[in-house]
Amino acid sequence: MSTESKSIHEFDFSLICEYFSGLERQGPGSPETTLQALKYIKGLNKKSRIADIGCGTGSHTMVMAKHTPGQITSLDLFPDFIQRFNDNAKQHGLEQRVRGITGSMEEPPFTTEELDMIWSEGAIYNIGFEQGIIEWRKFLKPGGYIAVTDASWFTTSRPREIEDFWVKEYPGIDLISVRASQMEKSGYKVVATFILPDYCWTDNYYVPQIARQEEFLKKYAGNKAVLEFVNWQRHEAKLYDKYRKHYGYVFFIGKKL
Ligand code: SAH
């Protein structure tokens, strides 16, 4: 099987985890876009309860927390990410308000109508956009907000190579208009959607990986699985470079009706 025809899901979890825990971000994004999304969220106060789902090591969470009152519970499947997340919260002096816990987004440990806001950057694809917004809705109070980023198509007709890649990696990828309609059908008012600038994916996500890849290849010289994984990451970055006009990351902000 060539690296190109393999899927990220076929690589060893611990390998993926080690690779990404050495990076500041585990997904595309930027402090600027986190703050831009926050501008649409109204009415939070010191008593607000916020969930941050699929937080990784939490670089965006710290930005969000510094500009948001309330208690934030951040959830990720991987204990290593959560350990780094909590160290990160301490370094930012946020440990009284920001707590990382290990758990699954498929069964988040929140109760009915407990939350004022659900935040999730670059992670909802793990459950699927539509399933995520439907299943998480019950945890929100009426009038509560959801703010998530997800990969979306920008064009209705795409070259075969990129279509095949995404259909395999994330069959749920869809147009912004379809996502907005899914939000409306699931009981949210669409407050805003905006496209993340290219640098969120290039400078902030792919570029930092270049040094990480060299480091990894050196550390695991001769390890075929590592080489395949690094080649897979490089392939993904090349595809973005070639086809970025067809897809990108989008912030979706909704309010529970
Ligand atoms: N929000 C972070 C991480 C994005 S990467 C950032 O933008 O930097 C996606 C994250 O989702 C990873 O940290 C991964 O561990 C987490 N994840 C994957 N499946 C999950 C699940 N079922 N439940 C909770 N987290 C999950």
Instruction: Characterize the overall form.
Output: globular
N-to-C SSE string, H for helix and E for strand: HHEHEHEEHEHEHEHHE
Largest sheet: 8 strands, mixed
Helices, by number, come to 9
Which residues sit in consecutive blocks of at least 5 with pLDDT less than 50?
none
How far from one another are the termini?
A: 48 Å
Oligomer, anyone? single chain
**What is the typical, i.e. mean, pLDDT?**
95
Keywords:
257 residues, binds S-adenosyl-L-homocysteine, 8 strands, alpha/beta, 9 helices, single chain, eight-stranded mixed beta sheet
Explain this structure.
The protein is of the alpha/beta class. 41% of the residues lie in helices and 22% in strands. The chain has helices at 13-21, 31-38, 59-66, 79-91, 129-137, 160-169, 176-185, 202-219, 224-243; strands spanning 49-53, 71-76, 98-102, 115-120, 140-153, 174-175, 188-195, 247-256. Strands 1, 2, 3, 4, 5, 6, 7 and 8 form an eight-stranded mixed β-sheet that branches. Helix 2 packs across helix 3 (59-66) and helix 8 (202-219) packs antiparallel against helix 9 (224-243). The longest helix has 20 residues, at 224-243. The protein is globular and about 55 Å long. The mean pLDDT is 95. S-adenosyl-L-homocysteine (SAH) binds at residues 25-27, 29, 54-56, 59-60, 75-78, 81, 104-106, 121-123, 126.
